[in-house]
Backbone:
């Protein structure tokens, strides 16, 4: 499904600010895997997602998704394969456009977009049905400007937009970190429902170890730009936060506070 093979990435090479962010990363995701990713600051978690999304190319190595070689493919050409939700609820949506207009943009991801095609009644029916699944009342506010929504509502909408056209891979980059705990749990439940319903292959970065253990069928830990722990199956089901603290030398304060 996804194969990252021997990937390296260095920023500010040959300067005093040189930083090896990814250091021989190897990672394979099978179809339908829901993988949570943890690690300290600078471990390479978000850089990995940016490499997959094409924000910047790897220095070495290859990235394949299904039958596609993404290694040197420009970011905009990967849009039809990928869905992504960022940490900041303000990203991923157009604040001055209505909810249905944002959904229409997402629905046309990877296609040529012109001015001649409006939103059909069939599309509106689809949007209303999907919005109703969020259980946030947004199906009755489809013409409301997205900028009027709360952070949690906006992030749930962004998640819906990222999955409206089933992506080959869903990337979640700490997508609940900016939300209060109650809202974060709500958005995570929505995430779980959508991923399971559509059997989406998903890579979710989080600093919250409880969430990393509770969600998904597989957990990986990154350190110094590579995967150092890969847990799945019964071992993950029986995993506790304290197990991670005891088993691994985790000294990142943010992770400890996110139990």
Residues:
């Amino acid at each position: 499904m996804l194969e990252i093979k021997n990937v390296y990435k260095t920023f500010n090479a040959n300067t005093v600010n040189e930083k090896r962010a990814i250091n021989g990363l190897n990672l394979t995701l099978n179809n339908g895997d829901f993988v949570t990713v943890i690690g300290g600051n600078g471990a390479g978690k978000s850089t990995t997602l940016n490499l997959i999304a094409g924000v910047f190319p790897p220095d070495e190595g290859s990235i394949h998704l299904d039958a596609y070689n993404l290694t040197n493919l420009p970011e905009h050409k990967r849009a039809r394969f990928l869905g992504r939700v960022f940490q900041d609820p303000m990203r991923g949506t157009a604040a001055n456009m209505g909810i249905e207009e944002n959904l229409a943009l997402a629905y046309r991801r990877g296609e040529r977009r012109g001015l001649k095609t409006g939103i059909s009644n069939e599309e509106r029916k689809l949007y209303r049905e999907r919005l109703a699944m969020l259980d946030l009342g947004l199906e009755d506010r489809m013409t409301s400007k997205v900028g009027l929504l709360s952070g949690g509502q906006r992030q749930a909408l962004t998640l819906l937009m990222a999955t409206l056209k089933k992506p080959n891979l869903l990337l979640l980059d700490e997508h609940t970190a900016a939300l209060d705990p109650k809202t974060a749990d709500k958005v995570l439940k929505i995430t779980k429902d959508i991923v399971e319903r559509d059997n989406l292959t998903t890579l979710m970065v989080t600093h919250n170890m409880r969430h990393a253990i509770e969600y998904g069928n597989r957990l990986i830990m990154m350190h110094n730009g590579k995967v150092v722990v890969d847990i799945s199956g019964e071992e993950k089901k029986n995993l506790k936060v304290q197990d991670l603290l005891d088993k691994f030398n985790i000294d990142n304060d943010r992770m400890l506070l996110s139990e």
Notes: Residues 77 and 110 are 7 Å apart (CA to CA). The first strand starts at residue 2 and ends at 11. Residues 252-259 have pLDDT under 50 and may be disordered.
